[in-house]
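Q: I'm building a small set of examples for a reading group on sequence design. Run inverse folding on the following structure and report the sequence directly after it, with nothing in between.
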């Protein structure tokens, strides 16, 4: 499998970041507060994956969805749809099953 290549990421406080992530492996993003972890993981990688996933929908389906802006990057390939898990506590409800 080819690595996921990110080039020229400038989302929020990222300063033209280039990196290669191993494909098919779990990758942890760590660093001090303000280092750009969320900017990299959520606002760049996840955002672009979500945007490309929505672009694969039919024009009819896309008309009901909010238009997603492309993050400030030069290149990101390959990228697939992703899932982001929010760190907030889930809402408890009597109807919840999970």
């Amino acid at each position: 499998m080819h690595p996921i290549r990110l080039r020229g990421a400038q989302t929020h406080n990222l300063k033209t970041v280039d990196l290669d992530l191993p494909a098919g492996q779990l990758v942890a993003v760590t660093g001090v507060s303000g280092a750009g972890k969320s900017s990299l993981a959520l606002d760049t990688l996840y955002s672009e994956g979500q945007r490309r996933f929505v672009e694969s929908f039919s024009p009819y389906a896309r008309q009901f969805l909010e238009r997603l802006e492309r993050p400030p990057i030069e290149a990101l390939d390959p990228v697939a749809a992703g899932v982001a898990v929010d760190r907030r506590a889930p809402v408890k409800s009597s109807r919840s099953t999970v």
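The helical segments are 37-55, 59-62.
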